[in-house]
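Appendix B. Raw example, untouched.
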Amino acid sequence: MNLFQAGILGAIEGLTEFLPVSSTGHLILAAHAMGLVGDVMNDFEIVIQAGALLAVLWLYRARVAEVLGGIARPRSRGGSLLMKLAIAFLPAAVVGLAFHKAIQAHLFGPLPVAIALLVGGVVMVCFERWRRARRGTPAFESVDAIPLSVAFAIGLFQCASLWPGVSRAMVTILGGLLLGCSAVAAAEFSFLLALPTLGAATLFDFVKSRDALLSGASVGLEATAVGLAVAAIVAVIAIRSFLRYLTRHGLEPFGWYRIILGLVLFALLWHHAWGFR
């Protein structure tokens, strides 16, 4: 992997991790286009996911400090948020551990990603049009107002994101909106839920590949540094921009993007473009 490829993949991760378009799906497609498959790409995904997590830690450092303080003070605001994140994290953790090998063996390819992008896009467009027609007042305006039952339900929605191309951000934000959260509350809860979810996944993969990563034998130390830095910087910009965009335009534009991309991928697969199988 050269530095240009590392930068491109880092930018893709940073841009798409917290948008409802599927970072995993985009990375799979970009890696196939660049001819980067196997252990090298698997190891590099660990690096750039860590970069995206650093962006959330920086932007929400005050909330993260509150949550950490909640360990000692479970009845505080931070303790309440810690409990919500923990209970929302559990469903995907259990399902992911149980089916990790099967998911990687059967779903990490262009065709499953194309299906997920297309279906997810249709769902988002239909949901946004239903939500606009309903014009209801959100029951939960902030993350702090979300009850434990709703947090757990959002965690159940998150299980769908184990299918590459579905998008963790899409299902958690859409789930939050469906369950009565405001757009900002749903998005911010999704961002914060990324910390335990992606953190655990990154740590799990790091333990398996730590020797290659620490030595730079698989990716290279320079490519690692570039990918990490680019992913973190782009993710900060993406999160800040997305919150403003979501409150003004909703999820429908992202749904149409997914539909168009999914259809393009089906056309490319039909003609065996880039050697996809």
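End of appendix B.
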